[in-house]
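May I ask for a sample protein chain and its fold as tokens?
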Amino acid sequence: MRPLRKFMDGIAPTFEKGGKLHALYPVYEAIDTALYTPGHVTAGPSHVRDGLDLKRIMITVWACASIPGFAGSYVAGLNANEAMQEMGLETVANWRGPILFDRAARNGFALESSSGRATARVLSDILVS
């Protein structure tokens, strides 16, 4: 871990005030704090401190909360596509239509209408079979 600490200390002036990448200091500081305990602590007895580093705990909370967030987004989109298929809609008439279907086609996805569910299938799989 010593080489990583030396590396982080070596690039620190680039991110501090007056450095070339000073606008990215919060990113540098978040990575540094996630890897190592901060060097500055409370000098006076302002409040009780325990052995937990609050920033590391919150990074873990955000990492754990993002998984259900992505899963929920996927399920909501899947349900919306299934509802559209049951109603016989192949596109959305408002501003969302070009975003949903044109972007999907450019990225190699298409809606599969032969099955009972609206699922994304890679176009290369369609062309190969």
